[in-house]
Input
Amino acid sequence: MDSIERTIKATWQHRVLFTEAIFDPANPVLRDTLGFGRRNKTLVVVDDSLVAALPSLPAGIARYFAIHDPPLRLDCPPLVRPGGEKAKSSWDNVSELHGAIDRYHLDRHSYIVAVGGGALLDLVGLAAATAHRGVRHVRIPTTTLSQCDSGVGVKNGINAFGKKNFIGTFAPPFAVLNDFRLLATLPNREKSAGYAEAVKVACIRDPVFFANLERDAVALRHFEPKAMRKLIRRCAELHVDHIATGGDPFEFGSARPLDFGHWAAHKLEQLSDFRISHGAAVAIGIALDVTYSRRMGYLDAQSAERILRLLEDLGFELFAPELLLAGSRRQLVVLNGAEEFREHLGGELSLTLLRAIGEAFEVHELNTSRVVESIYELQKRRAARRLTELVAAV
Ligand SMILES: NC(=O)c1ccc[n+]([C@@H]2O[C@H](COP(=O)([O-])OP(=O)(O)OC[C@H]3O[C@@H](n4cnc5c(N)ncnc54)[C@H](O)[C@@H]3O)[C@@H](O)[C@H]2O)c1
Ligand SMILES: [Zn+2]
Output
């Protein structure tokens, strides 16, 4: 047999910059990120909810580019596109962006800047990664969740065939620029959704961060900027550390520790027709996997209670009626989430559970009876909390 085999090595510089008032002409961060070498074209895509809350933003962005031209170059006004999960609901949205890339003659050295929530970033990231086999993509995330988790990663994608992120690629962005002030217009529900990802990464990686979250829970519940900035900074750092040093940035293996709590979460999002946001679903997914870890004897009761209490203190519900939806054979539909998760990852089922706060490990099968018991336990816990609240309100 004849063969040619070589090792191909490639390195990426994964940059997440923290700044404030990024489109203030006096702020050089965006100019310095895009404006070196040739005068490369930029296409900017902005989340429509952000524009609805901040109507002057597209003009402000255009002004920033005009003031810094050269070295910046913007050939068309920022495109305003629907954000939220509907952004990821159709390939047409990707095609539309491909059309704009073609119309404005962007090349592989041009930039596509996405300003918006994680869903819009996932959509624009996919279009950028697939046009010309990859146009430089700069992310400016505008939700807590995307600033601390989804926006600082290396994945993109849209949903298809009723499955989350079915179409997508691994493509490290050219840069991620986090501007805390862009979170000011977020509804409270979206502000706190990202906290679930912080609890997730603290649970699997960092007991000190977990204790800090417990200490800051009241401040976070009141959206105090100092506590939120700290959460975003540390969560993003742990996320990027995992990608850079975890040994599997493009997830060729089966283990996916950053997806702790996500097998049920993705299914709940879909079963609720996205009524339950990603962050809210992740909180429930974590609660389920923590309760299951305790019931299986992996995790001590005190640690499990600390995690559930922290999620509640941060304002999350730990149960949703969708957990109890039954299929034609009366089995709980949410349980299909584990197999869909396996299929998405490839290889054998690999789920992250906890042995302690800060200590994760992998399992390769689920005891479905214990999962069902855990779901009912969360339902009972929610009912008990409601009762306490009602009695307190009398
Ligand atoms: N690529 C990845 O690695 C990865 C990882 C985790 C999650 N995700 C994906 O990220 C998505 C969730 O992202 P998200 O939590 O950022 O929510 P989102 O993008 O769905 O945004 C939530 C809502 O807030 C609006 N919005 C965004 N910024 C705003 C602002 N500053 N002011 C007012 N409204 C604003 C959006 O239009 C949307 O309606 C999911 O699709 C999830 O699957 C991707
Ligand atoms: Zn997530």
About this structure: Strands lie at 16-19, 42-47, 79-81, 111-116, 136-141, 158-160, 163-167, 175-179, 351-356, 359-363. The CA atoms of residues 209 and 380 lie 29 Å apart.
